[in-house]
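Thought: the user asked what Penicillin-binding transpeptidase domain-containing protein looks like in 3D. I have the sequence; next I should run the structure tool and report back without guessing.
Action: structure_tool
Action Input:
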Amino acid sequence: MYKSKIRCISIFAVLIVAFSFLIYRLYFIMSSNKALQVNYAAQMSSFEKISDANYDVVDCNGNNLLSFNKEYYVVVNPYIFSRNNSDTNIRELTALNYILKNYNKNYDLSEISIEDSTNKLYWKIDEALYNNLKKFKDVNGIYTYYVNKIDRSKAADIYNILTNPKDKNNKKFKANNSIEKLIYDKFKNNAYPEKVFKNDNNGNTVSSTEINSKNLSKVKLTIDKTINDKVQSILSSSDLKQVCAIVMESENGAIRAISQKDLYDANINLGLKGVYYPGSIFKAIVEEAAIENKSIDLDKPIKDTGKYSEEKVYDYCTPKQAFVVSSNDVFINIGQKTGFYNIYNTAKKQGLFDKVLNIDGESSGSMDNMDSNNTGNLSLLSYGQSLRITPLGALSIPNTVVNKGIYVKPHIVDSYVDGNTGKVEKEKIYSNRVISENTANIMLELFKQVITDKHGTGLLAYTPNPCIGGKTGTAQRGENKDKTIKNVDSWFAGFFNAKGINYSAIIFAPEIDKNMSAATTTAPIFKKIVEALNSNN
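Observation:
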């Protein structure tokens, strides 16, 4: 009897030790193996990604810039649904099934069994059904949520472009050196915002919380949402079929607004639909090259035959007057005296033949003909008809002038902000002198006279301002098979002051009627932008 008692105690002690060892081993394995911890947690929780952006995009003042559309889902866990709904009111189940089948005949709860699937079923629904399903709280194994999807309906929206690292088919990544791929690589390892649905021991959802949605990392753009919205409003109210505009802070090259009237079309500012003849705004480059190379006497009159000019103002006019009234004939003479490569190099130094923001698909400027001995080509170049540029590239024309001869490369990313550490990585600003300060000062006065002289082509752009000037450009397209001109492109390149800050701007309207001109189309839009940015409204 005594021996039996001792044997029982010994066996019991061995079992306790063995059981304790097993508990210890299980604890050790679980605590040291993250994968097992995750698997265990997954049995008690469901994780759903609720945004397709794992970072924020903000303007220079910290305002959110991304627009989202909500995609709604109802999720069915076949195992939990089939196992744990025996106590659910049959009317509630029947009503829920009816509503789902009425929305989509394939959403049939009566066909679901444990054996059907080991994976959850995701049924896409609309907002009305999502709100309707919220009242069914006693059905186990079913829950609803929505995902914030970046609105990509507006092809020209710069925020849409910057946050999309893949091609139009959403299959291949864009070029490794593109700004879109750079932004993607910065944040690709960041956690996405998720919603966690907590389950009880029977797998029934008892609560839900969001994780990873706070302290997201940020791309801080140079865009000022207030300025951009004002510019967008002006473009949207224009009678023109399409028109785009860029406004940049002159001193630092920070783009504060970039938009166009029809945002559902390809981005014209970036040249995603092609490149364009700049027309007479290019005369600024020709005049600069002539001054820099001492090719002309600015005050010596040159005969204007009127053969190539749309409107002849003077029989003879100086190169200064020719810029103000935009005489093609006189500028052909200036171009011939200055030479092809002097003009070309002046344009190249101001970035007219390079990508500016390095956005994938962004166009760079180009020459139609690089034959420097071709007299006809040089004549066309002299008034902007044998090279093609983008509106973004054209921004350097007024900006170099108002910056006293210094080219500042435009940029749109201000910095990257780490959401966890708060560390800020600022983007570099690139600038260099491309023309002398003396040349820039001469051009500055000529830009001002374009909108103040009684014969100036930009009179409709004028509004009282501490520092305002510009240049019109009406460029022939020459794309019709019969060689006739039906449409022209309209440009305005200018600078102005708004509340103590100098800005440079490009306004561009493609394919306007040939009987219209920049003087009556893009110049007045420039004026509206200047007035809007100086307004307190």
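Thought: the tool returned a structure. Summarizing for the user.
Final Answer: Structure for Penicillin-binding transpeptidase domain-containing protein predicted. The longest helix spans residues 2-32. The first strand starts at residue 45 and ends at 49.
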